[in-house]
Amino acid sequence: MFMFEPGYKDFDPTKEEKRDRPPYIPTPDDDPDYHNRKVGRPKPPAEDDELAAFEACSRKILDEFGEVHHNLGLNQKGNRGLCAVGPIKNGEIIFGIPECICYTAAGALKDERIGPFIDAHTAPSKPKRDTDGNNDGGEKGKVKGKVKGEAASILRMPRGDVALAMRVTFDALHMRSTIQYSTWAPYHWLLDREDFDESPTWWDDATREKLLKGSHVLELARKAAEDFEHDWNVVKDELADMAVEAKLYPLIPTDFLRETFRRAVAAIHSRSFNATVPGQETSDAAEESEHTILVPVLDCANHHRKPRECRWEIVPIENWARRRHYIGKWSVVVGALRDFDEGDPIRIAYGARSNSELLVRYGFTVPDNAEPDGSSNDVVPLHIPGVPGGAVAQLRVASRPGYTYPPLASALDAIKRKRLGVEEPSPGENTRVRTDDDIVGELDELDDWYGGNAGGGDGDDEDDEAMYAEMYGGGDGDDGDDGDDEAMYAEGTKAKRARAGEKEDAVDVVDDMRRMDDPYGGVRSLTADDVDEEDDDDEGAGGEARGSLDVEVAALRDLVAILRERRDAIPEELTRHDGDDDADRRAAAAATQMLSERLTLSFYLDATERALAIAAGVVNGSHETLREAVRAAELGGEGGGDAPPAGTEGADAMAWRCGRSHVDTLVRAYFRIRHGVA
């Protein structure tokens, strides 16, 4: 049952409120002229009357026995979107959109003309077993999805998106040529009043180069634009043929057709949602894009991540109060998670997306795009040049090293592989294979170790021992078998001492990397005994201990150079925007992305420089042991917190997350995890 039951629990179908609706018709198939007879042929609103288009779309929803709260409206000032024009209570249904006026990629792929065309221009996938039992994915030995023609005819954009764009384009051409009202006409009226040019995908080359210079988003936008042009050349002849065969146009201008298709693609990129609807076939091989849907009115809601203010979900029709009137299998229902007053925006969460994704896909960015735990949603890919097999570290700012240490370790070990001329060890060569998610989870737990809390944050000191065992060695750690854990500690200590005798041999360093526990490379499996013995090892090794840091210091020095070059490629003036956001939304959105990217790179640059200075102090003889050097550095990092001080917002909050306290937190974690120095 849908969670917002209070909105309709007292609904009595025998006493339904009257909305001047025509009599119920079981299915449109029983009456070919169903839609035209039902609502007539209303005239499209004026081109500049977005509110009238929204009201027409709302009336269409009600005509199809959907729901629209009487206090739902459209804000046409500033940041346009849905708003409350009167009180809306927590738990009330704000609107419910029937299936029959939604566009779905699955429906487009079932079209007798569009579906086969998309299949013929999709790259071959893994064959699937079919009815003839020969596992070839098709009948008579014909592989399903085999491309007809050259590689240039293979679609680059997701197949579901292209299919849906073709369907939306054809419907738009149909309505404009015949002036015929259809199910989706009010929705098209609403779409027609959008510019769909805020994403850098649709900017001209000069604007992209000017506003995104040095950003990885520049390449993302270029590729998106190139993919569109490629796919347009694939579909344009088919779209023209469809229009001519439907007697829509005797000859359709190419520029007009291209712009109609471009707007359809832009609408899908910026307004679509991804969801599996009841009755839609799914499989492991199905592309995510095949679950794309366009939902009128829902796509007018702006993005707001935390705290969530509304919830939307697809409700099977058997759970929908108006099911006796309804044509279709499901409805998209949005309910309030808080009380709304007049003028409040009605917003939904698009998901935990980075600003780079928000900018390229939707055309906007979010200042201080962070989660409640202090982790930024923004990720900056750092390419390590010259590494055999390639290497990219995904840099992310956070208050906790569970997010920030893994990319730092990944970058350092990629540089080591570059220096040694070897490719990244495959998972099969590791003594124990763990996934990236495993490592991140374990490092997140590590916060408790040096933060003074119990393992898992539950206050249970007993489970700390199990956590340490599981994190830092090969034993079970959670079965209460102390013998198992003692063997694990002994093995870890033995391996550590063995490495101490091989420190100056680069080949043995490579072997160490191949024997490591986790896929980041060079992150040794430490035990509590390792940490206790670190001082003894350093003091006993003398100059040998300093020699063990040579490779690490060289990697840190290389990483500093890479980070500085990458950061300085982003002009500082592009991180600021002092103009009117409404007048220049493009520059404002780009500036937020550029600032986030530059601050993230600066955060890792500061941490790497600080770690380099400490480690180099041992190599050059300023300190006898690494522990002594770390203590002399007087690292802070404790008590930084997850949230910025009250009143700190936007660029100031972003800068706070990249401040000295959080830099030192990462540096302390680096020496503790990588070198066993508490």
TrEMBL record:
Residues 529-541 have a biased composition (Acidic residues). Signal peptide: none annotated. Residues 1-48, 118-144, 515-546 are annotated as: Disordered. Residues 7-22, 127-142 have a biased composition (Basic and acidic residues). GO terms for molecular function: protein-lysine N-methyltransferase activity. This is Uncharacterized protein. It comes from Micromonas commoda (strain RCC299 / NOUM17 / CCMP2709) (Picoplanktonic green alga).
